[in-house]
Specification:
single chain; 363 residues; mainly alpha; two-stranded antiparallel ribbon; 21 helices; 2 strands; 74% helix; 2% strand
Amino acid sequence: MNKYIRLLVMLFALQSLQVVAQDNGLILLKDSMPGINPDAQRLYNEGISAFESGQKEQAIAKFTECLQIETKFASAFLNRGKIYLQLHQLDKAFTDAESYISLNDSVAAGYGLKALVLAELGKKEEAMIAINQAIKYKDNDPQLHYQRAILAYELNQFDIALSDMNEVIRLMPDYAAAYNDRGSVKRKLGKLDEAIADYQLAIKKDTKLAFAYNNMGSTLREKKDYAGAVKAYTEALTQKKDYFIAMNNRGMALLALNRNDEALKDFNEVIRIQPSYAYAYNNRAAIYIKMKKYEDAVKDCNKAIELDAQYGDAYLNRGIAREMLRQDEAACNDWLQAASLGINSGEVYYNSGGCVEFERSKK
């Protein structure tokens, strides 16, 4: 699942009090409300207007002025906290979430915001506690269940994620992305056929959902149905021609089918579109190794490692290419590094490539 992106789109409606008009997406309050200072109401509305027009800093300023007049205006804290979150000013967003919770009897939205902030801070266990509190107060909110599903997914709590995604779909049966994300949970649970069925449901509800085609392709590739995977990736690219992840994945499926020239074309295009995508360089290196272009393979692995120094497979492939170039010591060092990064094949190559004997001979 894409980390929080779709969730933020769902959650980021600014909190209103009593809605009397909605014109071009701008939510306004009544001109006067009992117990609320009229100037605070005006500034609150101006904050919403600024946000809707993309002026986030101006919106924050308006909500801050509002709160200087009405220090217990709960919805102003919530709105300002959401904008702080978008601007990645996480400490301020957290403080506003806490302020909203302390002032509002219906605190689900505040705990939801708090959970988002904690997740962005990497405090996912604490975020789970917060989102559980939110759902305790409002258990029929699909957005909160979606948020908990994402957290559970990232914490490898896939049964919880599946339960929440089922609830999201029960409450929002026409939301195509939810079927895609449930498919991703099922894939993690090893339920590959069920995952494919969910991706198909997502596509049925939204035929332009490129990432659902991509995910279906990756699941088919996991089932070793490489031809089916190529077809799914191609459809993803039909919907979104610059979808470089799907293009890279198609290249991998083509490589598995020994359609090396087509795979090379895909990896070249990925690198043109997204030159900072390390995986494409390593994948192209794999083709160069098959084509016995070992120096080119080393160059591509070097670039992949430059972009991601923890990319174990790039060290593995560079070691293979260097061995073929008779650079034995460098090859052994690469395989050892690959093994240290969790690539089991690195240790296999190191032990079978004469590296142990090579090291002994140096002593």
